[in-house]
């Protein structure tokens, strides 16, 4: 695999060895497979990783896109992921979901 153009991080709420936060309770982990499939279908050179708690529980699930540094809030369904990936393909940001 060549170096990815983008690295997408999805909060998995881990604090130590346990998933305790709200993002995982809002099913953030179920979206990782969907994101990976969409990246492949869209031909985007990107990888997805789950993270420990990103400390923004009230805004979660949180998704971060690097190297752009865009932080997205309330990423809790496939349509939100689609909007974010559409923007990524277009070289823009999904402003409606950006964490201010």
**Which structural category fits the helices and strands?**
alpha+beta
First-residue to last-residue Cα separation: 34 Å
Could you name the ranges where pLDDT drops below 50 across 5 or more consecutive residues?
none
- Give, in order, the helices and strands: EEHHEEEH
Integer-rounded radius of gyration: 13 Å
The CATH superfamily label reads Glutaredoxin
CATH topology call: Glutaredoxin
Q: What form results from the Cα inertia axes? A: globular
Brief account:
This protein has helices at residues 22-25, 28-42, 78-90, and strands spanning 6-15, 18-19, 46-52, 63-66, 70-72. By secondary structure, it is of the alpha+beta class.
Notes on the protein architecture:
α2 (28-42) runs parallel beside α3. Strands 1, 2, 3, 4 and 5 form a 5-stranded mixed sheet that branches. β1 (6-15) and β2 form a beta hairpin. The chain has 100 residues and is of the alpha+beta class. The mean pLDDT is 91. It has one domain (6-97): Glutaredoxin (3-Layer(aba) Sandwich). It contains 3 helices and 5 strands; from the N terminus they run ββααβββα. Helix content is 32%, strand content 26%. The chain is globular.
Write the layout of secondary structure elements.
Layout: E1 6-15, E2 18-19, H1 22-25, H2 28-42, E3 46-52, E4 63-66, E5 70-72, H3 78-90
Parallel strand pairs: 1-3
Antiparallel strand pairs: 1-2, 1-4, 4-5
Which key features would you list for this structure?
100 residues, alpha+beta, Glutaredoxin, five-stranded mixed sheet, 5 strands
């Amino acid at each position: 695999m060549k170096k990815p153009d983008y690295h997408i991080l999805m909060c998995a709420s881990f604090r130590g060895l346990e998933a305790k936060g709200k993002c995982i309770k809002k099913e953030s982990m179920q979206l990782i497979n969907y994101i990976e499939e969409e990246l492949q279908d869209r031909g985007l050179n990107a990888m997805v990783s789950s993270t420990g708690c990103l400390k923004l529980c009230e805004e979660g699930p949180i998704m971060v896109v690097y190297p752009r540094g865009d932080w997205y809030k309330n990423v809790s369904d496939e349509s939100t992921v689609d909007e974010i990936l559409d923007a990524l393909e277009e070289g823009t940001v999904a402003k409606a979901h950006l964490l201010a």
